[in-house]
# Entry
Amino acid sequence: MIEVGIVGGTGYTGMELLRLLAGHPQVRVRAITSRGNAGTAVDDMFPSLRGHLDLQFTAPDAETLGRCDLVFFATPNGTAMQMVPELLEAGTRVVDLGADFRLKDLPTWSQWYGMEHACPDVVEQAVYGLPELNREAIRGARVVANPGCYPTAVILGYLPLLEQKLVDASFLVADCKSGVSGAGRKAQVHTLLCEANENFKAYGAPGHRHLPEIRQGLAQIQGSDVGLTFVPHLVPMTRGMQGTLYARLTGQANLQELYERRYAAESFVDVLPPGSHPETRTVRGTNMCRIAVHRPADGDTALVLSVIDNLTKGAASQAVQNMNLMLGLEETAGLQQIAVLP
# Structure
């Protein structure tokens, strides 16, 4: 049985990790940490897990975590980089759901996250954890940087077009919407019910910290820098995310066939039939990304619709997918949930 630990288990992504790992056939959660809730039973905080996990939150302890096969960090940015080097020395593998190891350019990372990086050497060896792009590198990784939610939806949406050099990579537009849970579980005015309900707004238009991450991923596919306009929006729903992606075509191809062929072997990317419009509710609580591709009026614009659950494929379930790859397990293990409707 694989033993794992979770650092920072009281947020939405930590809760989703617990839910998924509790149902994983080959994994046991050895430790889950929270400085502020040490001694509290997990099922007291998350009653939905009653009968599935008999654990208490504990203070982070490197010795205990170092006895795990793998540790997940579901912590604020800047936390994982303080503990990861010691865990690596102990032979423990790491999946960080925060942003500490996502960006390879450290001055850019410091600009967006407002601090100096504590372990640049670990950044160099970390693998960006988008399996559909970096599967083989993830298998051998000791540290995986789990992608952000917006980057997951956007990169998967653009990937086939950029691989085949079919679009003008200097002018890409990603118009994205996310449910309120993407802001995390902490109390904030803009996520209060009376503020977010019956409201719709853009944010981060001058610049969002996921922008350099998305550009980095797209540049890896393209083989050169890309020009991307990225505008996120907050929508009054709990979870779910859609990327509406635009690109100017420069080559000829049957876009439907292109996407179906590229993702035919991917368990967690579903290319919908021609003319479809994916819905966020069809991926709720799953590790699935559903994609539809259009060419409006047979013009020169490729329009891609990409939907995921921001808490699962955009965070926790993708982290479990990465864990499965890193530890030599079946990639789909523990990730076969069907979305709950309505």
